Each structure stands twice: as C-alpha cells, then as structure tokens.
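Tutorial handout. Part one gives the primary structure; part two gives the three-dimensional structure as tokens.
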Amino acid sequence: MTVAPEVQRLNIENGNFTFLDRGGRMLASFTGVDFRSSLRSAFAIRGKAKVAKISLRDRFFLEQLQSPLRYEPDVLELSKISAHAGSGEVNGYFAMQPEAEDSPFTTRVTFSNVLADQIIADAGGSKGIVQGKLEGSFQASGETADPDALIGKGEVFLRDGRVQQYSLLVLLGQILQIEELRELHLEQAHVKYHVKSDLIIIDELLLHSANIRLSASGTVTFDGKLKLNSQLAINEKIRGQLFKAIRQNFQPTNEPGYFALDFQVAGNVDRPSTNLMDRLVGRDLGNVINRLFGVGKTERPKKKKKRAEAATSTATPSPSAAPGETPLNFATTPSPSP
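Part two.
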C-alpha cells in the first residue's frame, strides 16, 4: 500500500522579501516575516502573518504588522491588519484574487495618532518643522500585474498642528514683520486626494491658522514631482500691517474678511520651489531678497566660470527652480536682518 505525503502545516520564520518594479527599483521590502498556518486542504490555508518592518519605496515605514491570513484559489485575504507607523496606529484590510486575470486587489487603511514629525523624518525630510498628530484613511483598488491600473482616494488630517522654522515662512515673516508666519499654530489642517495610475491628485490642501490660510490643489507624481496651484490668504488684521505696495497684491476672496494672493509650487518634494516671493514683492525685488538671505545659492555654468571668478562674489539663482521661483530649502533658516 502506498501512502501519499500530507502537509498539515506551513511555517515561515524570520523571512525577508523584496519587491521590485519593472525598472529594478525597490517598491517594498518586508523584514522579519513570520507565518504560521494550518492546511485545511490542498488548496486552502488559514494562519496568522507577522512582519517586523515594512518599507515602502524607502519613504514610509510600518512596524509590527500582523493579521489573520486566508488563502484559497480565488482569494488571498488579510482580514484584520494592525501595525504601527510614526508611533501611531494603523488598521486595514487587503484582498487579492490570485487566480484571476492580472490579479486584481482591494485595500482599505485607517490610521490615527501618527506623529507628523517622525513620518517626515523617516521620509528624508527635516525634523522639527511640522508638529502634530495625523489621522485619516485610504481606499484603493488595482491590479498587481499593471501598476497603471491603481485608483484610490484618501484624506489626512493634522491635529494640534504647528509649523515652525519653515524657511520660506520665516523669510516672509521677517520681511513683512508678521510674527505669526514664523510659527503657525494650525486650527485646521488637512489634505484630500485621489490616486490614478502613478499620479496623486491633490483635491484640497489646507493649512489654516487664526489669521492666515494656505491652500493648494494640483498633482504629485510617485517620483516626487510637484505641480501645485496655491493661495496665501490673510485677514484684515494681517493685511493692515503690510506696506501699501504689498498690501495691494492681496485681493478680496469669497470668504468675508480675507484677502488672497495666488502662487505656484513646482520642483520636487525633496526640493520644492515657488514664485510666491516674486508675486508678493515683484520679481526684481524678490531676487534681491533671495540673494540677501542666501536662499538658492549655487555655482554658475562652467562656461562663465572665469568671468565669475574675476567678478566680485555674488549670489546666483538656483538651477533647480524656474526663473522667478525660490527654492524652499528646508535645511536653511534665514537669520534676522540687523
């Protein structure tokens, strides 16, 4: 009599997995994977998965993820995901149809008490600029075989938010003599967005303090390129403190008592740029101010090197920004003028 072998359990301990895109770039890595399961049949698995750390594009990190897992030919399901990110809590759901064409999937995520400062630092940004706790949600669907099929939407809220020592706002605060710009205590802060293919479409971004409102909409690509139409709005109290020439640039809005100035943000998430200074004080004066405070200095093109060495030392515009745009150097905090 022949007895066929029977597998009753499948376990993985301390496994590591890396997923790459078509160009060989890292999409996600899973470190410290533990999986314990029992086989109900040759085609059905029930178990529990744990992952010590997950890195998404080396910019967002999840820790201590765990969830019940169910696998059958028509579905792979993580039904109750829990994890930590930025010292906060993340909960979610994931399901994929592995046998269907292009392996479609759906996912839902909610998060709360996530420290904004830690998330920014983990993504490579500067610590200490944004304080507060993040909460929000995200829903998406797509096909694992086709990254361009991804669609989704989400929203993020910043609670007890504060923005401080942000170089452009500090610079504006010094020029306009508005103390509030140097450290914004936010009464309202959120972003609402949707995802289509490799594009994040910002439907509404809002930072609102007692007297100032910053808003934006536009697009961010997955590789970090920005294109935002933005607006700086101030109330009558702040507007009354401005010089007349600057005050006239702020026009009445639909919100009673507020006056606004439109501007653009471009460049990259790691090094954004804006034409706000030029829109505020004019291009010529804006360039002078940028040079005075040392914003956006760089080398001249090589063909002008000899002429530059012979001339008196001068500041030059940054090649990373379009003409009339000020790079937002997160590492630079201008010193107050005498």
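Part three, for discussion. The chain has one domain: 71-327. The longest helix spans residues 167-176.
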